[in-house]
Amino acid sequence: MSPHDRAEEDGPETLVSLDPRTGEVVGRHPVHGPDEVAAVVREARSAGEWWAGLGFAGRARRLADWRRLLVRRLDELAALVCAETGKPLDDARLELVMVVDHLHWAARNAERVLRRRRVPSGLLMYNHVASLEYLPLGVVGVIGPWNYPAFTPMGSIAYALAAGNAVVFKPSELTPGVGEWLAASFAEVVPEQPVFSVVTGFGPTGAALCRSDVDKIAFTGSTATGKRVMAACAENLTPVLIECGGKDALIVDEDADLDAAAEAALWGAMSNAGQTCVGVERVYVVEPLADRFVELLVARAAGLRPGGEPGADLGPITMPAQVDVIRRHVCDALDGGARAVVGSRDSVRPPYVEPVVLVDAPEDSPAVAEETFGPVVVVNRVSDVDEAVRRVNASGYGLGGAVFSRSRGAELARRVRAGMVAVNSVLSFVAVPALPFGGVGDSGFGRIHGEDGLREFARAQAVTRRRFAAVLHPMTFDRGSRTVRRLVRLVRLLHGR
Ligand code: NAD
């Protein structure tokens, strides 16, 4: 039963979140309509002014308090993440460890990145002081997915708060409890004003947030929804940050450490039951190494078991509708000539999917071309890395990627059309707070995390201050007839050669 069905059963104003492992009710939440969303945004606006007024140091202190609270109650939140997503306990804990690290980085670096700084004033305006500052936008609306219900939205929330904004968060309808927990815990350390609030509901609640008086929307979810979000935001010229899906690939070069590549490919493809935007969904391995690589991958994959117990290797498919997508991708690939070296059509047993490794799948099959979002990986052989790079870049998506190569990892990484690339590992870029995160093409645009992620939630303001009267002042009706001619002569001298 999906949360939609449950909402209808309980009446239109209630959203019920369920444990995907058992179907048990985890919590009930209101479905907020446009008026309620508008009211929350209105309150957030004045809260944001208060929050901005605390300055970098005041905010950093509060965010540090929140960080300590999250650490103290990490297991409580991890249990809720497990209940709403079904993921294994240690995966939920790992997700929260990364949340804490990012929150720490954002709070610690906001002032350095955003504060007013002097910049050179240049030839024409040498008599001015020029400075640049990144000011808060006001209220940032964050719309999140369910697969990493704390880590993914916190990539926007923590950075937007550190930059001095209020935040209104619309969590996924599958994980509303995690969203509410985050906002409630923040309110414990910042009780004065609703600086970080949550609205719950389905797509229409997200759409209402897009059409509300927010100053920016940070959306993370599917490409199809991302386009709807952009269209709604266009009505008010509300700026958007769009973090969408991917079809990330791992390239195995001739001199790769094969054992390490197989281990990483397996984790990249199967952890979180493949429900990772930067999960490894395709592997391109050069021909001479292909058989050995597949052997190593199969040996490792054979031991993995999905299940609902805390220590399982992978949990269930959180969103019931995704099971059909996964089944279609596996069956289409097999019908098109691919071989399953791990698993089979029967591996899809809702709510669980056992690991599936497909080899030699047609490049135009959905398992290679579309986001699968399940524990399924395609391994295709290529004649050389140039062919691998061509195939990787043939995708409309361009989120992350990985390259295994001893001698030319950095060179290959540069050739991959993606926002992030890991060399000789997978997914590592998500855990480096200083690195920006985001994609190109169908994977979206804009960046969370790092300095770019802080600036994403701020508006650059340029200020010039005149210090003294210039000898040559061309921007006045009182300028002499020779002023501009002298300037042109000067420019010819300086820049014309
Ligand atoms: P989704 O697009 O179905 O939903 C995402 C959010 O958008 C939910 O909160 C949903 O209620 C809301 N929404 C739905 N319709 C809306 C509308 N018309 N207007 C505004 N909001 C609306 O995605 P999902 O199934 O929750 O998440 C899975 C997808 O997210 C995958 O494609 C995955 O790759 C992607 N993802 C991307 C990243 C990233 O950082 N790039 C991270 C995690 C997940």
Describe this entry's structure for a reader.
The chain has 497 residues and is an alpha/beta fold. It has three domains: 14-244 and 449-458, 3-Layer(aba) Sandwich (Aldehyde Dehydrogenase, Chain A, domain 1), CATH 3.40.605.10; 249-433, Aldehyde Dehydrogenase, Chain A, domain 2; 467-496, no CATH class. It is 42% helix and 19% strand. The protein contains 17 helices and 22 strands. It has helices spanning 3-10, 34-53, 55-72, 74-85, 89-114, 151-162, 176-189, 203-210, 223-234, 258-270, 287-301, 322-335, 366-369, 385-393, 409-415, 450-455, 483-495, and strands at residues 14-18, 25-30, 117-119, 128-136, 139-143, 166-170, 196-198, 216-220, 240-243, 249-252, 282-286, 339-342, 348-349, 352-353, 356-359, 376-382, 397-398, 401-404, 422-423, 440-441, 444-445, 458-466. The protein has a seven-stranded mixed sheet with strand order 12-15-16-11-10-18-19, sandwiched between helices. Strands 7-6-5-8-9-21 form a six-stranded mixed sheet, sandwiched between helices. β1 (14-18) and β2 form a beta hairpin. The chain is globular and about 85 Å long. The model is unreliable at 1-11 (pLDDT under 50). Bound molecules: nicotinamide-adenine-dinucleotide (NAD).
